[in-house]
Write a structure and sequence with these properties.
single chain; 29 helices; eight-stranded mixed β-sheet; binds zinc ion; 902 residues; disordered N terminus
C-alpha cells in the first residue's frame, strides 16, 4: 500500500503528535497483537501509543509469521539463526529492506545488519554510502560542495543490541522495529523511511546470544521471583563477557567485524541498547567528558535524550530519565567507535530481568551496583528524572520492549525531522577534526624507528590503522625544532579526520576533576601501556614531514651475522614466547646474565639456539632480533624448558581469565584451563610446573567458594538441545568453588616444588588463605580512588628473570587495585621484586586519589613456600589486551620459574 507522500509530509509539518502520526486509519491491524501486548504489559502506563498496535501488510511477514510468536512474549527468546531467518524473510518480502553481512564470529555465527529505508533509498544504497564517506573525510571538499552533498545525503541511524548477552531484550525488540519500519504506512514511518537509513544488527555478540538463550531455556526459565535468579552461563563469547564493551583495542573477532562495518558505512548515529537501570535511562554524556571530542557532540547527546524523555513523559510512561549515569571519559566502549569517528554515540539502559520471565522486582537500590556517578536511589524524583521509577514493580519482557521501542521511535522521529542537522553536524565534526589538528598542538605523534623492540610499535600502529587513523613512515630523517628522528619513523599527523581519536589514544590522560567519579578506566595511553616510545609533537612542522602511507605495519626480524649458533636477544618482545612454543621440540639454553664481547651484546634471557633455516625463518616472521655466533658465549646459562602450565578459573568469574586466555592463545602458549573439579582431584604437581590464577572475583573468598549453590546442581554440559553449553570447559555443577579441599591441594602443589602465580585481585588469595603465611594483604581506604590509572613501578631486583627484556629501573604499569601487600621487613630485600613509589609524580596517566596509600607497597613479590614458590602480582600484567608492556613479566614468570626455584 502506497501512502500519499506529499500529504503525509504536510501533516507532519502541521504539528500532529507522534501518537496521531502513528495511527493510520486505513491500514489493517493485527488484533491478536493488540490484545496480547496489553496482557503482557504489566501496567497500562508501561505501554505507549507507538507500540500498542501492529500493522499488517500483505505479503510482508511479521516476526510472528516466521517465528510463531511476537517479540516480548513471556518466556520466549530468539536464537541467532532465527533472528537471521526473520530478517532474511523480511528482506525477501520487502523492497524497503536489505541485508548486509558483516563477517562471522569466533564460533562461526553470522554478524548481520538489516537496513530499512524507502524503496528508492534501498535501491541506491551505495550512492548514499558514498555521500557519508565523503562527509566523513571532507578534505579537499569546499563548503559549497559539502552542502550540496548534505542536501542529497541521508543519515544512517544504526541500532545495536545484544552486546551483553544477559541483556536479552534488545535483539527481540529490534526485529519488531525493523518490521514496523518496513510496513507501517503512517506519516511518522513515511517520514523516517524517506529521511533516514535505519540499520539494525542481529546481535552484537552472536556467540554470547546463543549461549545465553540456551542457558535461559535450560536453567532460568523456571525462575519466578528475584530470589530464584541464578547465575548466568560461565561464558558469553569465547573469551570475554561484559568487557566486550571495554575492548578498546578491538582484540575480539566479533568487535573487529563491527568496527570494519562502521568504517565502511560511517553511520552518523550509533545507538547501543543495554539493560540494567529502571525503567529506562537515556545517555546524555555527562561529566567527566573527554575534552578532545568535538563540543558539538556534547550538545547533540542531551538534545536527543531530552527529546526522548519529553516524548515518553507525554505518553505518561514513568521512570524515564537521563543525565545521572555513564559519563563521557573513556573511549573504550564499543559504541564509542561512533563518537571516536566524529559520529554520535547513543545508549539506553532499560530495565530487564535477565531473561523473558515476568517477575516482581525491587528497584530501590541502585541497580548498577552503586556505580552510577549520580549514586543514591533510583526512585527519587530529580531534575533529570521527573517521574521516577516505582520502588517495586512487576516487570515483563514486553514492558522492556515497549520502553525501548517507544524510545528509539522517538529518536527516529527527531532524526527524521532534523536529518540535515544531523548530517551537517557530522560533516562539521569531521572538518573540525582536520582543522583542529592543523592549528592546535599537539600536531601529532612520532614513534621513532630503531626502538629495541619494534613489535610494540607495530602493535600500536596496527591498532591505529584498524581504527582508520592514518599513519605514515617518514622517507627521510625528521628534523623538528627540538628533536630529530631517524628515517623510517612512524608519524601520526593530527590534521586528519580521526586526528582527535589519535590524540585521545596516544596522549596522557589528565582527569579533569579528582572529585568526579567515572564509570570505567581513567587512563589508557597506548605508549605507556605498551612501554613503547611515543613522542607528542608540539612543532607544527611535523605536518609537512614527507611520509609514505602505512597500510598495516609488519616488523621483519633479523639475524645479524652467522655461525653455528643463533642468539635471539631478549629485548622484551612478547613474540619471543611465541618463538619458544614454535620451537618446542628443540633443547637449548638461555643466558642467565648479560653478555658482551666485541660488538655482540646479549641481554639476560637471550635464547641460544642451534642455527637453521627454520629458526631464522621464525625469528624473521616474529619480528625478533638475533645474532649469529660461531661458538656459545662464556656466560652463565639456564635451560630454556617449557613448563607444564595450567590456568585456574572459577566458573563464576571467567572474564579476566578470558583476557589471560586470549593473550596466551595469541602468543601460542600451551596450557590447560583447569576448574574446581581438577584442583579438588589433587596430584597437581604430577601434572603441572606452573599454575596461574588470573585476577577473578572481588575477594579471595569468592575465588575459593565461587557460585553459591541454590540447592540443585547447575550443569554446564553440552546436550543436543543445548549445543553451546560445555564449551571451553564442562561441568555437571558449576556451583561451590574449589572449597577448602582445593586450597589444600594448591598448597601441596607449591610445597612440592610448584610455582603458583597470582594476578591482581587473586593475589589476596595466597596471603589470606595462608599459603604465603607471613605475607599480609590489605585493602585501600574508602577515600582511595584509582580507576585504572597508569603509574610507575620500581624494579627492585633487575636481575630476576621476571625482568628479562626490561632496561629501565622504573616502568609504567596499569594500577589494578590489587592487594596492598606487606612482607616481613627481614624478607623484603629477597622477596620484593618490584614496588610502587606512590608519589604524585609517579601517577603518569589517569587519576589516583590517595596515592600515599600505595607508597612502598610491593607490586610483585616472590615468596618461597616449601620447595616451590608463589609469585604475587599486585598488578595485573594481562589486562584487557592493553598493557602489553607488562605481559612480558608474566611470560617470564611462566617460562623461567617453572619446575622449582630458579
Ligand atoms: Zn550492558
Amino acid at each position: 500500500m502506497k501512502a500519499p507522500r506529499l500529504l503525509a509530509f504536510a501533516v507532519l509539518a502541521g504539528g500532529m503528535t507522534a501518537a496521531a502520526l502513528a495511527q493510520p486509519p486505513q491500514q489493517p491491524q493485527d488484533e491478536d497483537f493488540s490484545r496480547l501486548v496489553k496482557e503482557w504489559t504489566t501496567m497500562p502506563e508501561f505501554l505507549s501509543p507507538l507500540v500498542d498496535h501492529l500493522p499488517k501488510a500483505a505479503g510482508v511477514p511479521s516476526p510472528k509469521d516466521i517465528l510463531g510468536y511476537y517479540p516480548g512474549m513471556p518466556k520466549k527468546l530468539t536464537r541467532v539463526a532465527d533472528l537471521n531467518r526473520y530478517y532474511r524473510a523480511l528482506a525477501a518480502a520487502s523492497k524497503r529492506v536489505k541485508i548486509l553481512p558483516a563477517g562471522s564470529t569466533d564460533e562461526g555465527r553470522e554478524c548481520l545488519v538489516t537496513v530499512v529505508a524507502d524503496e528508492d533509498t534501498i535501491r541506491n544504497l551505495d550512492t548514499y554510502k558514498g555521500y557519508l564517506a565523503r562527509l566523513a573525510d571532507p578534505r579537499g571538499l569546499s563548503d559549497v560542495e559539502a552542502h550540496r552533498i548534505i542536501g542529497l545525503a541521508k543519515p544512517v541511524y544504526m541500532f545495536t543490541g545484544g552486546l551483553h548477552s544477559a541483556e536479552t531484550g534488545p535483539p527481540e525488540m529490534l526485529m519488531e522495529l525493523a518490521y514496523r519500519l518496513a510496513v507501517d504506512e503512517s506519516p511518522l514511518y513515511e517520514g523516517i523511511r524517506r529521511n533516514v537509513i535505519v540499520m539494525v544488527v542481529n546481535a552484537l555478540d552472536p556467540d554470547g546470544r546463543d549461549r545465553y538463550v540456551d542457558w535461559y531455556y535450560r536453567h532460568k526459565i523456571s525462575e519466578e521471583t528475584e530470589a530464584d535468579r541464578l547465575a548466568g552461563p560461565p561464558y558469553w563469547g569465547k573469551y570475554i563477557y561484559h568487557d566486550n564493551n571495554r575492548d578498546i583495542n578491538y582484540s575480539q573477532v566479533t568487535m573487529r567485524n563491527w568496527l570494519k562495518f562502521y568504517l565502511d558505512w560511517h553511520p552518523p548515529i550509533m545507538h547501543d541498547l543495554h539493560e540494567s537501570e529502571p525503567f529506562m535511562y537515556t545517555f546524555s554524556g555527562q561529566a567527566p567528558q573527554n575534552p578532545t571530542l568535538d563540543p558539538i557532540l556534547y550538545g547533540e547527546l542531551p538534545w536527543f535524550s531530552n527529546f526522548e524523555m519529553t516524548k515518553m513523559m507525554s505518553y505518561g510512561m514513568p521512570g524515564v530519565w537521563t543525565h545521572a549515569f555513564v559519563d563521557m571519559w573513556s573511549p573504550g566502549y564499543l559504541g564509542f567507535m561512533s563518537s571516536n569517528h566524529n559520529g554520535m554515540l547513543r545508549m539506553y539502559e532499560t530495565f530487564g530481568n535477565g531473561g523473558a520471565n515476568t517477575m516482581k522486582r525491587t528497584v530501590d537500590a541502585p541497580a548498577g551496583g552503586g556505580e552510577a556517578p549520580g549514586g543514591g536511589s533510583m526512585t527519587t524524583r530529580e531534575w533529570y528524572r521527573p517521574i521516577p521509577p516505582y520502588k517495586e514493580v512487576v516487570w515483563s519482557q514486553r514492558n522492556n520492549t515497549n520502553y525501548m521501542e517507544t524510545g528509539v521511535l522517538s529518536a527516529l522521529e527527531l532524526t527524521s525531522n532534523f536529518a540535515k542537522t544531523v548530517l551537517e553536524n557530522f560533516y562539521t565534526k569531521s572538518r573540525n577534526s582536520v582543522e583542529s589538528g592543523g592549528k592546535d598542538a599537539p600536531f601529532g605523534y612520532v614513534l621513532p624507528a630503531g626502538q629495541r623492540d619494534m613489535t610494540r610499535v607495530e602493535f600500536i600502529v596496527n591498532i591505529l590503522r584498524l581504527q582508520g587513523v592514518e599513519v605514515g613512515r617518514s622517507t627521510a630523517e625528521i628534523k623538528l625544532k627540538d628533536e630529530t628522528f631517524p628515517a623510517g619513523s612512524l608519524v601520526v599527523k593530527r590534521n586528519q579526520p580521526y586526528g582527535r581519536l589519535a590524540k585521545i589514544l596516544l596522549e596522557k590522560q589528565q582527569f579533569p576533576d579528582a572529585n568526579l567519579r567515572t564509570y570505567d578506566d581513567t587512563g589508557w595511553t597506548m605508549g605507556l601501556m605498551s612501554q613503547a616510545d611515543v613522542r607528542e609533537i608540539g612543532d607544527r612542522a611535523l605536518l609537512d614531514v614527507p611520509v609514505e602511507p602505512v597500510d598495516t605495519m609488519h616488523v621483519n626480524g633479523e639475524v645479524k651475522g652467522s655461525g653455528m649458533w643463533t642468539a635471539v636477544l631478549h629485548n622484551g618482545a612478547n613474540s619471543l614466547s611465541t618463538l619458544r612454543y614454535r620451537l618446542k621440540d628443540l633443547t637449548y639454553d638461555a643466558t642467565a646474565q648479560p653478555y658482551k664481547a666485541g660488538d655482540i651484546e646479549l641481554p639476560a634471557g637471550s635464547l641460544l639456539l642451534p642455527s637453521s633455516a627454520r629458526v631464522k625463518g621464525e625469528i624473521e616472521k616474529l619480528g625478533l632480533q638475533a645474532v649469529g655466533l660461531r661458538q656459545l658465549p662464556d656466560v652463565p646459562k639456564r635451560p630454556a624448558r617449557l613448563p607444564r602450565l595450567a590456568v585456574y578459573t572459577t566458573w563464576g568469574s571467567t572474564q579476566d581469565v578470558g583476557w589471560v586466555r586470549y593473550a596466551l592463545d595469541h602468543f601460542e602458549f600451551a596450557y590447560d584451563l583447569i576448574y574446581q573439579e581438577r584442583v579438588r582431584k589433587g596430584a597437581l604437581r604430577d601434572a603441572y610446573d606452573v599454575i596461574v590464577i588470573p585476577s577473578q572475583g572481588r575477594t579471595s573468598k569468592s575465588l575459593v567458594f565461587d557460585i553459591e549453590s541454590k540447592g540443585k546442581p547447575l550443569a554446564y554440559t553440552k546436550t543436543p538441545e543445548f549445543p553451546t553449553m560445555g564449551m571451553y570447559g564442562e561441568s555437571e555443577d558449576i556451583t561451590g568453588g574449589m572449597g577448602l579441599e582445593g586450597v589444600v591441594e594448591l598448597e601441596k602443589f607449591v610445597k612440592s616444588g610448584g610455582v603458583l602465580i597470582t594476578l591482581g585481585a587473586a593475589s589476596f588469595f595466597p596471603a589470606e588463605f595462608g599459603i604465603t603465611r607471613t605475607v599480609e594483604a590489605a585493602r585501600t581506604s574508602a577515600q582511595f580512588y584509582a580507576p585504572g590509572p597508569i603509574v610507575e613501578a620500581e624494579i627492585q631486583q633487575p636481575s630476576n628473570p621476571i625482568f628479562y627484556g626490561y632496561t629501565a629501573k622504573v616502568v609504567p604499569v596499569r594500577y589494578a587495585n590489587g592487594p596492598l601487600l606487606r612482607v616481613p621487613t627481614e624478607d623484603r630485600s629477597k622477596w620484593v621484586l618490584m614496588q610502587f613509589p606512590g608519589t604524585d609524580r609517579s601517577v603518569l596517566s589517569g587519576l589516583m586519589k590517595g596515592v600515599a596509600e600505595i607508597r612502598g607497597r610491593p607490586a610483585v613479590a616472590d615468596v618461597p613456600v616449601g620447595q616451590g614458590h608463589v609469585i604475587l602480582f599486585a598488578t595485573n600484567p594481562c589486562y584487557r589486551w592493553q598493557n602489553l608492556g607488562e605481559f612480558n613479566m608474566l611470560a617470564n614468570a611462566i617460562l623461567y620459574s617453572g619446575g622449582g626455584r630458579p
